Structure formats: C-alpha cells, structure tokens
Amino acid sequence: MKKNAPKSLKFKVHNKTWLKKMGMNLILSVNEGSKYPVYLVEIHYGNTKERPVVLVGKGVMFDSGGYSIKHGDFSDMKTDMGGATMVYEVMKTLAQTKANGHYIALLPLVENMINEHATRPGDIIKSYSGKTVEIIDTDAEGRLIMADALAYSKKFKPKLVMDVATLTGSADYMLGGNGTMFMGNKYSNELIKISEKTNEKVWEMPMWRNFLDATKSDIADVKNLTLDAKAGAIMAGAFLYNFVPKGFNWIHLDIAGVAYRNKGSQYYSQGATGETLRLIYYFLINN
Fold this sequence. Notes:
The longest helix is centred in the N-terminal third of the chain and has 15 residues, at 82-96. The chain has helices at 16-22, 25-31, 82-96, 142-152, 169-175, 188-198, 209-213, 232-241, 277-285, and strands spanning 10-14, 39-46, 53-57, 59-63, 102-112, 124-126, 132-134, 160-165, 180-184, 202-204, 222-223, 250-254, 260-261, 271-272. Strand 6 and strand 7 form a beta hairpin. The protein contains 9 helices and 14 strands. The chain is α/β, with parallel strands linked by helices.
C-alpha cells in the first residue's frame, strides 16, 4: 500500500497489540478465526491546521460469514475489502491532485474465518466506545469493524465522518446493482447533486427512530442484527449510527451493489468497478 503511494500521504499501521491496548474489541473479534494478522491503517493528508474529514473504509479481506457461514458460492467474498480500497484510492487521488483540505482515512483490515477461537453467535463484546454488542450473526461483521473505527474518529474532531462499505446484500437487492444506498444526518442534497454530475446514482434511506430502537439488545447495549432481518441495509446503517460520535456530521455509503460486477456493462468491465470514486472525490473537494 505505502510502496506506490504519493509521498504526501502519511501512514500509521496499528497492529493487534495496539488494538488490544485501545480496546478495539469489535475489530479484534472479527479476525479471531483467521491465521492472518489484524490491522487498523491510519492515513493522513493535507493541512493539519484545518478540521479534517475522516473516511472509514471496510476492509474484510475475505468473508466466510464466520460461524454464520454463507450459503452457496461465496468465492467473490475476496471483494469485501471494497470500502477500504475505495477510501484508499480517494486518498491517493486527493494527494495526486494536491487537493486543499485535511483528510484522514481509517481502514480496519481483517479476515472473517472459522476456528476454535472465532467469535460465536451469542457472544457479547465491549467496543472501543464502551458500548456492549450482542453478536446475533457473525456474517454481520463489517458493521462491527466499522463501529470501532467510527468511534475512534472522535479523536480527530472531524467536521465530517464518511464511511464506505460493501456492507449488505440488501443494498444490492434494493437497487438492483444500479446505485449506492446512503444514509446520514447532513449533506444529503450536496451528495445527490454531485452524483448527478458523475452519473453515479445514489438513493437516500430513512433514519427513523424505530430503526434505531430496533438495534437495542435485551442483554447488551446493541445487537449487530435484528432477528427478522427486515430492512437489512437500513438496519446496518442504524447500527453504525450508534457509534458515530455525538454531534458529528455523518454519511454512510453502502456500495455492495456497485463495487464489483460479475459481467461487464455499458460503463464497466467485469470485476471491480471503481464506482463512487468520482462521487466521493468531487463531493469532498466541493464541500
């Protein structure tokens, strides 16, 4: 990652020892079943005298689903690091174009696998924020690593936190792979206007109180999945909202339907598409 990066990007690579010290137990829990190390990569760019925008990218290098193992062919789950890849490429583009502003990327990097140490459904884990999380489904792992990173963003006192993730199959089904679902508490109109210029379609989902209430657990502060699993993409965003530092501006992009294509299309060849790169970049430099 660092080898081909612009020199103006500054990296900090946090390992398992650091994550344990910080109490980022949600990130650690997802990687417990893997033989590979866990990391949180922190990337800085720009004028440090300005309040930053923090970008959080989901980096699940492979997702088996854990003990809630996926069904059918999931060989494409090597693409579940699409959010981290997107955020990294946005940071590179900002640096290459010498964009104004201050930007920080947080990339939690894990693998969701199964062994005798892996997190189990029913486990309760204390997050970096101090909130406890009941694990209903180990295949709802992306929101766990994003939650710790979102809570950590408070350290930087950002003017905006944006998270990007291949988070739910529901987002893909909802829009048929034709656009990106998003949620947030500010900048909705600005994001939609940019999407119309870049021809990268977005659709805003509601953040109603009953969705937030449905994330509450009877035996912990929150749970990572609702039992009936309705409104899956919205519920994933509602879960994340529990970990957005209070009073911060926030945008959540679920790129599960657009990050990767098994077949080519009018605009994209088969494989990773890079869709939302232009959207995020132009949004950032214009807001």
